[in-house]
Write the structure tokens for this entry.
Amino acid sequence: MLNADAMPHSAQSATELFARARAGNTEALTDLFPLLYDELRRLAARHIGREYGPRTLQATALVHEAYLRLVPEDDLASADRAHFFAIAAKSMRQVLIDRARARHAQKRGGLMAPVTFNDELQVRRDGARNADETIDLIALDSALTKLQALDTKQARMVELRFFAGLTIEETAEVMQSSPATVKRLWTFAQAWLRKELAT
Amino acid sequence: MTPEEFQRLSEMFEAVIQQPPERREACIDALSAGNEELHEELRVLVESHRENDRFLESGVIEDADGPLHPGDSIAHYTIKREIGNGGMGIVYLAHDTRLNRKVAVKALHAHLVADTRQRERFRQEARAAASLSHPAVATVHALEELDGHFYIVSEYVRGETLAATLEREGFSPNDALQVALQVAEGLAHAHDRGIVHRDLKPQNVIRTPQQQPKIIDFGLARIHGSDSIEQHLTQTGLLMGSPGYMSPEQLRGDTVDFRSDIFAFGILLYELLSGKHPLQDRTAAATSAAILRNEPASLPGIDRPLDAILRRCLQKEPADRYSSTRQLVDDLRSIAAVQKTRVPPPAAKDRLDRAWWTFHQAAVVLLYAVTVVVVWDIREQSSGNTLLLFYAVLASAIGNGTLRIHLLFTSRFNAAALGSEMKRIRRWTTRIDWCFAVLLLAAAAAILPELQLISGVLAAVAVVYLVVFLVIEPATTNAVFPESDSTRR
């Protein structure tokens, strides 16, 4: 799994960063964001750039791939794992937004498609596409930024659910909350984001 | 809205959605208590709520698909599904509703035809490509322009690209030559009309299930605006793939003519024959440097005439390559003709193996003959069922002897067909071998009371025969026809 271009990362793999963080080095965790950001961006470019490969990029799969690459032994304590996914979700969000912006900036995008989420793909596979199901990631990003100002906890939860693809239970574990609470918050966030994106 | 108000809003929302739908309106009225703004906010929120909402739940997916979806129409072509994605655009399978046939629609990336000059040039190229009509070239049917987008409608070619076959299993030498010859014929057809492909590579040749290779995307590379590598890289990014098929003059940005195609063809031929690119290096830049500077390594075990064709195609200077694609086709054709009639030159070891096999077959035939004579001689001594047994032994010995003689003759007079004949006949010989051995044993048992000596001889022959066809024959056959047949990775 480890190939030549992954080697530079191994020098400061996630496991090591967490070990340093536990040893009292508070900067270690802040190093994780750029590390993950780079890793995810590279993985994304690789997945999309493959000429004959699948042409969709699944954030959840990327986050898990990054986890396997950066924490090859799967030896993180569960608190560290939670941390990892929290930061990975944030990094993934940044990667996707940057890609969306870059596409947007491409001169009148032409054949470049808007960024969509996979409910739409599901519908499309059935042959009856519904344009309403297409979502603009950039709009979602600004809605999330707005949500962050109103309720940090909810914004974090959306990141974990949407950008890292965590389940209600996993999200609850990362947020040190109960699944029931997360479910409640999630229901509200869904309605609120639907409303924000509709307007 | 403050975080506190937001908090209150979320609590009210939860209270409302716990009510059955018909009571929600009233609940909102009660909770907002005359506050118009809050009332409206809450109402819209509740309206946005869905039972068991899956919104945002399956994780984000970035979808690089083009804007065309199954069911969309371009002119009278209905899109069925996406079938490919290259540097220049996305290819869809579509249905031509007027002529009721399948077509391929390539939607060109918008940046490739951004300005009027590029557009005009592209129209010209498409027109030229559409004038080609050859079995080895995918036919261009039409060029459609819609909302500033360009769509090339062409023959839908089913099959596998040569790149995919190379990746999977490669080509046998004969196969490689046949494919190369047909591709060269397609190229010559275009070159005769002054049309240059400019981007010939294994990804751009599809082989149909009927074994007909077809070159796709003729002349389209022209729309890159320039033939230089910078243009290739900046305009198409990484999707363009490795520039491992660009001629030295293309890499240098010099003018390009049909001789660039001949260079690319040389690389393609080398790959078909050997399964590997002659000058591939770790990075695109290193490969380009190798194309400009390095001589490709000679292919081991390749015939001199074929090696000469390769060398001539892969000359760095266009002037040193073939000055006509027809000449290339003629050279390939004469090699193919020779290869067709000729037995592959057996190496010394092969010849020994062949001799061993021939000796073995001849010995077995002799064994049959002797058995036939002996059995015929002693048939007088037996009667009834035993006699039938003897006739059965005779029949199987004569039958199998004939088949083996047929193989011996085939190996002498039509060696090329020996492999397939072996495959065809072996099923039968094996079955008859078993019958023969078993019948012979039965015959030996039947005459045991009267003729102990001959019975012993027959039983011995049967046992020897079992050893011969169960142990020795597979060894000699494998020596001449190794299990892994001639296809090479």
Q: What stands out?
A: Chain A touches chain B through 56 residues (CB under 8 Å).
